[in-house]
Specification:
mainly alpha; 6 helices
Length: about 130
């Protein structure tokens, strides 16, 4: 089942009761079925603006990387940048964001973070 899964700590107990499939593997579907039987399964449909990228094969992994690269280059934004998400959500302050960004300045990723913060300050100067 395609999806992004978040489980509570008792997922360990659910998983202990799962038997390997015909492929000899513990299947994520079996975990979900365990929570369904407990009436503890919740789901949300990912709407417009989300993309699910299968990376189960080498070709699929390459395709996903190409997709991410193309979107990031065309949008001039990073996909799933944890520091940016935390900062934009107000979970970390400007100074905490800057502390995370500066040690990464030798990389393109670090420069992206610093530019976000500098751009935010320039935006505030312009509107005040």
């Amino acid at each position: 089942m395609v999806g992004l899964y978040f489980y509570p700590n008792d997922v360990v107990e659910v998983a202990k009761n799962i038997r390997p499939s015909a492929r000899g593997e513990l299947e994520i579907t079996s975990v979900n079925e365990g929570f369904l039987r407990r009436r503890q399964l919740k789901m949300s449909i990912m709407g417009r603006g989300f993309a699910w990228l299968d990376t189960g094969t080498h070709d699929a992994y390459q395709e996903a990387g190409n997709f991410i690269e193309t979107v990031e280059k065309r949008q001039s934004l990073k996909i799933a940048c944890p520091e940016e998400i935390a900062w934009r959500q107000g979970w970390i302050s400007d100074s905490q964001f800057e502390e995370l960004a500066w040690p990464l300045m030798k990389s393109q990723y670090g420069r992206y973070l610093v530019q976000l913060l500098q751009g935010q300050h320039e935006y505030h100067k312009q509107i005040h």
